[in-house]
Write a structure and sequence with these properties.
- By secondary structure, the protein is of the alpha+beta class.
- Helices cover about 30% and strands about 20% of the residues.
- The strands form three sheets. An eight-stranded antiparallel β-sheet has the order 12-7-11-10-14-15-13-16. Strands 1, 2, 3, 4, 5 and 6 form a six-stranded antiparallel β-sheet that branches.
- Strand 10 (about 220-230) and strand 11 (about 230-240) form a beta hairpin.
- Helix 6 packs antiparallel against helix 12.
- The chain starts with a helix and ends with a helix.
Length: about 475
């Protein structure tokens, strides 16, 4: 095909993508108008990556069926226009053929771009590329008032642009997002570096974030796993186009187990860029062990298409609906277990302090580590660039992720472990993501998550309170 032919084909695909998107927007607006004025507006979603209780609502939801596609990829400009309900699985599939990928690709395939922007996301590029919302150039948002507005960093709706991250759909829903992309190579070369001391891991991690190198080799991706206080790892990834064998962790081998080794020298591995981006999805990090999927006898019989986070999430949803886990515990004479499914961020210099506290107090392992720094150095007028999740510019944080359940004691306060985690994170000048159970009081919550800034945004973009407010949506109901 000639260059002219290629250009014409790309132009036609571009126009077709936007035409389909406009039709989807019209269905969205029609569904908004069909919701009774006294009912809360919500998405009509069958799936979710949230682990907190969702508000009961019998009113029809917003029709987002036409908002789940990549609209257009501009390979020359390294940008993509993406409908808000598009999963990262579909987004990556659309960009990798161009040798491009989003700057931050959250670990699970069915996380949507809109969800990662309004609810935050993180991955092993976050030490150099920040969080997903920081690569957004502009976005169209359906506000609580039923208007679709375009928000940009410095336009008329710059307040919504900066206040949208961590608003969890309480100010509106993203309809279209234009995002930056980056060039990626076909493979990722890995080094798994073992540590026997958490403080040595902390100092090494801090140096890598600053230097972007380790032992003379470039670092493009960085995360870690803590198994015990004296067995932890940093995994360092380097993009490469060098051909060679690659590992496959979608079959019998399990990625997180491949990290472990006894050598004082780093263990090396290689993955295709596609398999690297989704290395955690096959076993939902390590959570698939709860379903027996890591047992070789069961794994051989478990269909490969069901070895993915979205299927495990359906099993979790059934457990929540029918209290299967608690009933099994009761049969053995045990009390119910408390769900502890959280991601928190603490400053890098408090990482070892928090992990040591966690390993003493909360019987969960392994735990995930992922460093991050905001991309931009300029804060907004409030002193922080993203007021609803006010991390400081020019400061390194470490995300600590832990996803399991702990035994309860009869008569103890509801959410005892989660409350202790919240208190400790605040004491360490950190923040907690809001996708799971939270127990904050209203004043503390306001101080941590936007306060008056959020109140003003709510007045402007949802004056009739058609959407739940953030505290009502995020905090565990008593």
């Amino acid at each position: 095909m000639s260059l002219l032919g290629k250009a014409g084909h790309a132009s036609a695909a571009h126009e077709s993508g936007f035409a389909a998107h406009r039709a989807g927007v019209e269905r969205l607006l029609a569904s908004y108008r069909a919701i009774p004025a006294n009912a809360n507006v919500r998405l009509a979603k069958k799936t979710s990556n949230l682990f907190r209780a969702r508000a009961q609502n019998t009113a029809p939801g917003l029709d987002v069926s036409g908002l789940a596609k990549v609209i257009a990829v501009d390979a020359e400009a390294k940008t993509a226009d993406v409908a808000g309900m598009t999963t990262y699985e579909d987004l990556v599939a659309a960009t990798l053929p161009y040798g491009l990928a989003p700057l931050v690709v959250p670990q699970l395939k069915t996380i949507t771009l809109g969800g990662a922007v309004t609810g935050l996301g993180i991955e092993s590029t976050s030490f150099r590329s920040g969080l997903p919302h920081e690569s957004v150039l502009e976005m169209d948002v359906l506000t609580g008032a039923g208007e679709i507005i375009t928000a940009t960093p410095d336009g008329e709706h710059a307040d919504l642009f900066h206040g949208f991250p961590n608003s969890y759909g309480t100010l509106g829903y993203s309809v279209r997002l234009k995002i930056e992309l980056e060039t990626v190579q076909p493979y990722v070369a890995l080094r798994h570096v073992r540590f026997h001391d958490l403080r040595e891991l902390e100092s090494t991690l801090a140096r890598i974030v600053t230097d972007k190198t380790y032992d003379g080799e470039r670092v493009d991706y960085l995360d870690g796993v803590v198994f015990t206080a004296d067995e932890s790892y940093l995994t360092l990834g380097r993009q490469t186009d060098e051909p060679g064998p690659v590992s496959d962790y979608t079959g019998m081998d399990i990625y997180y187990r491949s990290i472990q080794h006894d050598s004082e020298r780093p263990k090396r591995d290689r993955l295709s860029i596609h398999d690297y981006l989704w290395r955690w999805d096959t076993d939902w990090f390590w959570c698939s062990r709860a379903f027996g999927t890591q047992n070789p006898k069961i794994r051989r019989l478990w269909p490969k298409r069901y070895r993915r986070s979205s299927f495990y999430w359906k099993l979790i949803a059934l457990d929540h609906k029918y209290n299967i886990g608690d009933k099994l515990e009761a049969r053995q004479g045990n009390p119910p277990r408390e769900r502890v499914v959280q991601d928190i961020e603490v400053p890098v210099e408090r990482t070892a302090d928090f992990v040591e506290w966690f390993l003493r107090e909360i019987p969960i392992e392994p735990i995930w580590l992922c460093p991050l720094r905001l991309r931009g150095n300029d804060a907004s007028a409030t002193g922080r660039p993203w007021p609803l999740y006010p991390l400081q510019p020019n400061r390194t944080y470490v995300n600590v992720g832990f996803w399991s359940a702990v035994p309860t004691v009869a008569g103890q306060q509801e959410g005892k472990a989660n409350r202790a985690i919240e208190q400790t994170v605040t004491e360490f000048d950190g923040h907690k993501s809001l996708y799971s159970d939270s127990y904050y009081g209203k004043d503390e919550f306001a101080a941590l998550y936007g306060g008056e800034t959020y109140t003003e945004l709510k007045k402007r973009y949802d004056p009739d309170q058609r959407l739940l407010d953030l505290y009502s949506k995020a905090v565990q109901r008593k």
